[in-house]
Predict the structure.
Amino acid sequence: MSRIVFLLVPGVHLLDLAGPAQVFSTAADFGHPYTLSYVAEQPQVPTAQGLPLVAGADWPELGPEDLIVVPGWRTGAVDGRPVIGTATLQVLRDHHARGGTVASVCAGAEALGRAGLLDGRRCTTHHDVQDELAQRHPAAVVVRDVLFTVDDRVITSAGIASGIDMALHVVATRHGPAVAAQVARDMVVHTRRNGHEPQSSAMLRHRSHLDDTVHRVQNLIDARFDRPLPLPALASAVGVSERTLTRLFSRATGLTPLRYQQALRLEHAQHLISHGATIDAAARSAGFEDPRMLRRLRARTAV
């Protein structure tokens, strides 16, 4: 039996906690030996979303096969809040020293940093607080814009939904990728992402504008990026001319509709290749008629 212990701090984000907990709970439902525990320095823990949680104060006996997870909390930064007692930090240090694994989601990396577990190790956190984590823990090797890192039984993830990716990685490492895929499918997770994949997808990077027409066109492209999408059809769908659509789209995103579609295709193909697909198979799945176009785009982005 492997125990997963979640350390809850005031202001904990519910999804930072619930995402990984659901992964290990689902793995247990499929017959893999996990039991989940929740520990806090006070009996009732307020969450960032307003739902209070109840946790135990006593740590269970832990062995090398067990995992401690520190979910993130709501603060403007990873600065001195919330207070985490020295005894709790010592539990983190001792568990790792005895061969156990510790993990964090989002700002939870700060707790590992305070315990000295990030010194000399690769780590990451939410993109909003990466710089501050690096400033507060200069001996840590903060890796920016990745979903999660693994370094000497210290696992850190970017935050919020990436905690699910991190937990699925643990399941895959312990039980094989087929089990992780089974868990992901049961949870209706679209894909199981690798740690080095970026925190922000192409769909999100170009969505910070306020142009409703362009958002509507992006919705169309997002849903069918692997199929031919002629500019006249896109313009007709939103009731503007081709010239107006190109002008609005470029002003809002910095790309033409075709370039945006290519970015989505490339990202999808890169994901498939990172999971073992051939370039030809990835090109077909992403909608490229000729694999040579995918090769050219990959070479261009690698420069």
Q: What stands out?
A: The mean pLDDT is 89. The two ends are 47 Å apart (CA to CA). The chain has 13 helices and ten strands.
